[in-house]
Amino acid sequence: MSDTAQIIPQLQPGQNPVVATIPMTAEQELLHKEEIHQKLEAGAQISKHKILTDKPTDMDMALLTVDVEKDLLFYIIVNLEKNSISYEQSQQLAREFLSLLPLHDKQDLLDKLLTVRQKNPGVNEVYVKYAVPFEEEEKQRKLEEMHHHIQNGNIDHAITIAKGGTINA
If phi over 0 gives left and psi between -120 and 50 gives alpha, with beta otherwise, what is residue 93? Predict the structure, then answer.
């Protein structure tokens, strides 16, 4: 019999041998769970911060562009199958969107989708899919900025942000 078999005599399939060999007390298990929870919370905060940043990275915009392209392609395919749009209209819609690339930031994305939507009202679903979360991100960014100004005693700056202005610092 190998040393491993003597150390881990009752290891179940899929069970981690390291965990199986080190039994935890209830207190250790609770501390371990709290540590995992803290790490998950920290990761969530980092993700939230990344989502709410003003300037997405080039990779973020590339991924977002691909998502929008897929959504528009899905719209085209579904509407071609339903005979809601013609083959020529689908080609025109694709050309219109591709002519607007590259997308520089989220606001640019919305502006360009709005242009496409004005010529193709059926694309409204795609526009709304991206407009609603972007507007929510903007609202959260402004609230955080206003909160920061209020904490620092700059009430006038917070009011300016609330009215849609910017503070040049």
Answer: alpha
